[in-house]
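During data preparation, a discrete fold description was generated, as reproduced here:
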Amino acid sequence: MATVMGALRLGNWRSLLACFLYFDTGFTLWVMLGPLAPFIGKSLHLGAADLGFLVAVPVLSAAILRIALGALYQSMDGRQIALLSVALSALPALIIGCGPLPGFNELLMLAVLLGLGGASFAVALPMAGSSYPKQVQGLVLGVAAAGNIGAVLDGFLFPRLAAHWGWQAATLAALPLLALTAWTLYAYAQDLHPKQGSVRLGLRHTAGILAGLLLLMELAHAGHLAGVGRLLLPVLGVALALAVLPSSYRRELKATDSWAIMLVYAITFGGFVGMSSYVAVLMTTLYHLSKLHAGMVMAGLALTGAMLRPLGGHLADRVSGVRALIVLLSLIALLDGLLALSLPGLYPALAMLWLLYACFGLGNGATFQLVPQRWPERSGLMTGLIGCAGGVGGFYLPVVMGLAHQSSGSYAPGFALFSLLAALAALTVTFLRKPWLSWSHARPPSPLTVWPEEVPAPQGEV
């Protein structure tokens, strides 16, 4: 603990706290529809496929908007981006909580705006890391990204409020959290990342991507992208985002390891956020738990993944993210495969899901230990692209699970598919192990072990 506290004092810990709250509150709004899904489904009479699609839309929106905000971060101060996205994130809670019962189409449109909460990842992480030296990036980015704990608040808070006041009024509980986050960002956030390019052009691109996402939701609701056609939405959304960005931002996609690390994050973070969005539905349909108990399950699992993310980054600082990911991805493939072969009873299933979430959390931290080392000058952009891949993985999980259950009456095909993808990711990292270790080397017992606790935090730009 003393070692960790000494590391955190090497930079601006107040700014790190502000970034943590920014991502935490954003994550809370991002997956808010997950624990409310059983209430929404009953209120609007939605089937399994439509309900799975609804909870997946904020995940998809965040995935695409992460590209936009990651690119915008290269030119615009991170604190300003954060305050703007917090203000826009408040609109869905206000409209749902204060207005009449929305229809399915209106909810899809508002779900797109909820994605801004998840897109905060592309700003919160590089802004937090900009105040700290390279040797503690795994720990620092793990702490900032532990905002995943917002999913825990979702599971504990929203089902109880919905049971007493209705699911619409429950969404208003997010507003005080947003107000606290906005004040903390304004007072303490600091962005030391170098900037280049036009802020006006970046804002124009971001607005265009947001408008395109709203149009895609309208097409999906109109039936032009129904059923399996919904699986094309991430492809269309990513194509839209990359089309409006300057060609210089697409340069990094020419490297093989860019796609490899995006695949890894699609498994680790995609598994975390996708399952967090869908696990309440899975628990109520497969194990017939009450809505409140399903929310508790979601909260407990999300707590595991969120709390272990900083540990995953700290572990990767010691042994390298490469070695950690090979082991963690192999375990994810094994656990998904076991769930696919034989869906167990409630308690064995909970134990296996708990282990899955532990691997997700550790894997998320290990992945982003690599990013500032591989792309030190373009960490904001790559955080957006890699975060997008994680969101795409999180979109597919609930959609595929919903389609699998509707078509076969079982979730086994969905777990089998994700097991194969995790195995592919493990093999990919193993294949790239030697070149990755050349720039992501495991450090010897580091300066962390000899830092005195009284070392003052350095002042000025790192």
User: Anything to note?
Assistant: The chain has 20 helices and no strands. The radius of gyration is 20 Å. Residues 12-439 form a domain with the Growth Hormone; Chain: A; fold (CATH 1.20.1250.20). The chain has one domain: 12-439.
